[in-house]
Design goal:
Elements: E1 8-12, H1 17-28, E2 32-37, H2 40-49, E3 55-58, H3 64-74, E4 77-82, H4 98-119, E5 123-132, H5 145-165, E6 169-173, H6 188-201, H7 210-218, H8 228-234, E7 237-240, E8 243-246, H9 266-270, H10 273-281, H11 286-311, H12 315-323
Parallel strand pairs: 1-2, 1-4, 2-3, 4-5, 5-6
Antiparallel strand pairs: 7-8
Bound molecules: NADP nicotinamide-adenine-dinucleotide phosphate (NAP) and zinc ion.
NADP nicotinamide-adenine-dinucleotide phosphate binds near residues 42 and 175.
Amino acid sequence: MFNLKETKILIVGGSSGVGLATAKLLDQAGASVIIAARDEKKLEHTRQLLGIKARAISFDASEKEQIVVALEKVGSIDHLVIALSGGKGAGSFETLTSANLRTGFAGKFWTHFSLAQESLPHLSASGSITFVSAISARSANPGTVGLSAINSAIEGMVKPLAVELKPRRVNAVSPGVVDTPWWDWLSPDEKRETFNRFAQAAPVGRVGKPEDIVTAVSMGVDLFDCVIPTRNARNGTLFTSRGKLVIKNAQFTEDERPIDESCECYTCRTFSRAYLRHLYIAKEILVLRLLTTHNLFYYAELMKGIRSSILDGDFPNYISRVQSLGGEREN
Ligand SMILES: NC(=O)c1ccc[n+]([C@@H]2O[C@H](COP(=O)([O-])OP(=O)(O)OC[C@H]3O[C@@H](n4cnc5c(N)ncnc54)[C@H](OP(=O)(O)O)[C@@H]3O)[C@@H](O)[C@H]2O)c1
Ligand SMILES: [Zn+2]
């Protein structure tokens, strides 16, 4: 996870559900969290659950003037998380009224748009904007035509916006079904029945918890569109089934083993650690390609392992095994 100490993060929608779970995690990680929502009482109650550094500010993000005033009060920020809910726009296409859908767009799309736009003068040049869209943007569930349109509109902004705002980062987190107060419009029985239905269709056999989303966010939801495997390889850091290995280290000078004895990549099948280290130290450019081949292969195998562990019902153990490899190891 990034170092969040000394960072100031505004979470709009921070008094409940996904926003609240995000606020708790970031607060624990040492960030200065500011939560925002409309209901002052609920907001203050939530703020007291967080650390002493946490602040709260109440405003209605569907009113642009209120956004402007609130952001002035908040001042400069490092990161903006938009986790507020719209609430309207659900229903079968035949019965969906344009008034309902317009309210849905006003509550979710336009709030996200205005918050992102108005935040720009306050947002650090190395900061980020995270939108929370929804799985409806890409799934095909009856009754979600309107929700899909709203959330697709948000996700559609992300890529061009990321390019316009670089080096600031722009992302959308797209949750599946998460057990939060968002579902309170259903009766308790309907809620239970709905969650059971979604749980049966989900690979992990349950609906999500807000903590699941933030754990994914904290680990980098776009990791696999990322420079980590290739850049680390070029710097001589390799991922292996026993943890990280730094090929430059002198301990590998006469090590005839492959980078990872359980890896079947071309590099591991063909070259020893000693030879790869020699190439690296000699600045032979071929080594960059060989090390990159290994790291990309490792990541592809990791994804295969994740998929099969989900199907086997062994995902939690798989996570623990991989997490225990985080640090550098004596290989
Ligand atoms: N829960 C799910 O299953 C699920 C699935 C996919 C996507 N999502 C998306 O995830 C996001 C968060 O949902 P959630 O489940 O965490 O909902 P939630 O528990 O209902 O929380 C929504 C938060 O947004 C605030 N909010 C709503 N309208 C606002 C406005 N106009 N201005 C300022 N704050 C406002 C609410 O506080 P106040 O009411 O006091 O303003 C509350 O803090 C939503 O965009 C939702 O569509 C949720
Ligand atoms: Zn390999």
